[in-house]
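[Meeting: bench + compute handoff]

Bench side (C.D.) handed over the final construct sequence. Compute side (W.E.) agreed to return the predicted structure before the next meeting so the bench team could plan truncations. Sequence as handed over:
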Amino acid sequence: MEFGFNLLAAVAIFVIGRWIAKLLTKICTKLLTRAKVDETLTRFLSALAYAILLTLVVVATLDRLGVNTTSLAAVVAAAGLAVGLALQSSLSNFAAGVMLILFKPFRVGDYIEAGGTAGTVEEIHIFNTVMRTGDNVKIIVPNGQISGSTISNFSANATRRIDLVVGCGYNDDLKAVKQYLESMLAADDRILTDPAPVVAVSELAACSVDFIVRPWVESADYWAVRWDLTEKIKLGFDEQGFSIPYPQQDIHVHDANK
């Protein structure tokens, strides 16, 4: 009679406890969703909360059946410690993934450079981030490696500045070269007028007079405009008769007999 009563009580504890665990998990999910927490993190935390609550329910059920839960808890704790030590790197990646999802230094679709890899972010998981390089290679980078390095997000801002250094010869007309570079920038509709592009003499180098050419463009047009400008500068210099100097040395030969 006593064992039957304890068995019925254990079944009731398990059924009601599991129902309460599911209810609390749903409440936790709603609160996280209302707080606009990332969906991936919300699912993971909800599943973790349900697993913990269900474990407590199972322990209470076994205790009602007369099982010594003290020794069981010690075994579970020891096993948890062993698993934690074995999965130390994975837990580090998990913690880094939580931080990346919460603080959002980058989003899906951004082009970033982090963890020694550059590419477009396709997926952000708890333990790793999936990126795609420019030559369409899928790379999976551990989140710990990303959070432990400098993150360069090239898509964070709507505009970017192109930095070019253009050299001309000392015999060229500096004013004419500068005027040509400015007119070339003004003729390209993709180059923004605010901020205004900069063309200025930056250095009197050993073999050339160097101009800095710094136009601002939309982030999506960065590479296309940069490549077009490089080509136009070379073709324009050829048409205008400007020289593009290269490193050279003058060698003077002396006749020792004279």
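W.E. noted at the follow-up: The two ends are 129 Å apart (CA to CA). C.D. will use this when planning the next construct.
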